[in-house]
Specification:
Layout: E1 6-9, E2 12-20, H1 23-31, H2 33-36, E3 52-57, E4 80-90, E5 94-101, E6 105-116, E7 119-127, H3 134-152, H4 160-174
Antiparallel strand pairs: 1-2, 2-7, 3-4, 4-5, 5-6, 6-7
Helix pairs in contact: 3-4
């Protein structure tokens, strides 16, 4: 399986991974704030369509190998928060939210989970990205998903920012 994200429609990137199961454990890493904060962002979810989702990013805490925040992302160095709205809620198979950013507007992220033997097919689709967001979003999702896989596999969680920088170069060339 190709772990790279692919553009599946204008402004839409999709990632697909096979992660360790069972389904309920992988779902917990998606919706429980403490577990989700280990690979992506913390923040409470009001578990219903239309409910509030607080996205609380702190990239200093998602790796077992901390590293300095790159200058271009310095505004995120001490953590950053965004508001979201739940757009899909079907435990333990589907969770979606509208991601509201002042600078870029609103985009939508959907996570679809399906059992596949002892593993879980984990699909992330991010829609509504502008051309100026696509490369950074692809690099970010790739790095976050690598860290999730590390955590679920019981491995040390890799460094985020250096992986993000490597992925930006690759996605810039291919997207």
């Amino acid at each position: 399986m190709n772990e790279r994200g692919e553009v599946v429609a204008p402004g839409t990137i999709r990632f697909e991974r096979l992660l360790p199961g069972p389904l309920e454990r992988t779902w917990a890493f998606l919706i429980e704030p403490g577990k989700r904060a280990r690979w992506f962002c913390g923040g409470a979810i009001d578990p219903r369509v239309g409910g509030r989702f607080a996205l609380e990013f702190d990239h200093r805490r998602i790796s077992d190998r901390p590293e300095p925040t790159p200058e271009e992302y310095e505004a995120m160095a001490e953590g950053i928060q965004f508001e979201g709205r739940v757009t899909a809620w079907d435990p333990p198979r589907r969770f979606g939210y509208a991601w509201i950013e002042e600078e870029f507007g609103e985009s939508e992220v959907t996570f679809d989970l399906a059992p596949e033997g002892e593993r879980v097919r984990f699909v992330v689709t991010h829609r509504g990205l502008g051309d100026d967001e696509l490369v950074s979003a692809a690099a970010g999702w790739h790095a976050h998903l690598d860290i999730l896989a590390d955590d679920l596999e019981g491995k040390p969680r890799r460094a985020f920012w250096s992986a993000h920088a490597r992925h930006e170069v690759t996605y810039e060339a291919s997207l």
